[in-house]
Amino acid sequence: MSDTPAIHCDQFLPHPPAAVWKALTDPDLHARWWAAGDVRPVVGHRFTLDMGPWGVQPCEVLAADPERLLRYSFAEGSLDTTITWRLEPEGTGTRLFLTHEGFDLDSPGRAALDGMGEGWPHVLAHLAKTLDEVPPGR
């Protein structure tokens, strides 16, 4: 954890960790619930996420533990933040924890912190809806 401001969200998803992991790491599924990009759970893998009006954001995978943890840098060169997805089995589903940290409040980071703080719950709702629509085993 850093001393800079961070966004923390958690959401229960009534899907097993394998399904949630696939939604986080499969480029086709990822594009359905958040942003298009060649995300892969391989440490050192560099990819971009197309954030529409906010442009294409460069990222790099920093940690990947299948069905447990995915961490990547986000918006390298502009926001320079880190997004961490942590999955914990809970009953027949998954508790998904999101931490978005590293915001520099003396840069565009203040507006990003405010906007993403409000936006992440909507993104997680899209993830939940996508998981509900994807047939098991897809």
Oligomer status:
single chain
Termini separation: 34 Å
Low-pLDDT windows of residues: none
Order of helices and strands: EHHEEEEEEH
The strands making up the biggest β-sheet line up spatially as 1-7-6-5-4-3-2
* Coarse shape: globular
Structural class of the helices, strands and pairings? alpha+beta
User: Major sheet: size, sense and barrel closure?
Assistant: 7 strands, antiparallel
The average pLDDT value, as a whole number, equals 92
Count of discrete alpha- or pi-helical segments spanning 4 or more residues? 3
Strand fraction equals 35-45%
Say how many strands there are. Answer: 7
Name the helicity range.
25-40%
Radius of gyration: 14 Å
Question: What report would you give on this structure?
Answer:
The protein has 138 residues and is α+β, with helices and mostly antiparallel strands. It contains 3 helices and 7 strands, in the order βααββββββα. Strands 1-7-6-5-4-3-2 form a 7-stranded antiparallel β-sheet. A hairpin with an 8-residue loop joins β2 and β3. α1 crosses α2 and α2 crosses α3. The longest helix is centred in the C-terminal third of the chain and has 25 residues. The model has no long low-confidence stretch (mean pLDDT 92).
